[in-house]
Give the backbone structure.
Amino acid sequence: MVDAESLDNALIALVDKRIELNGLKYSDDSYDKVEEELHDMEDDFVDVYGKYLEKVLEDVHEKYCSNTEVLLPTAYVAKKYIQKNEQPGGKPVYEVSPQEGVWVDLDGKPGQEAHLVLVPSPARILLMIGTQAAKEVWRV
């Protein structure tokens, strides 16, 4: 079993680093350094939580999108998050657009645009279907 708080904190750190990188222009002197830090964080995240999250993702895929290949957990981390506010206790709350995450082929709904995305606070997987509201399909 995995420590839920540690997983969530590691995911928050990844998201915050992505937000930092997205805020930089490619020509910025610190862009390469921040990008390298992000890649190192992603590698560490997979080393520590990869096997656990791969099993979680296999279960989610089996239930909702069994014909779509399971990828590394970091593939499900959105490219762009928007920090909206904070929870009591100071943890950030994030939103993602419906097009973020990994595109999946929903069982019983061929051609329906859908994405799975990993979101922190608490660590969870959202199923984004078209432009509809997200459906939480797993929570740590």
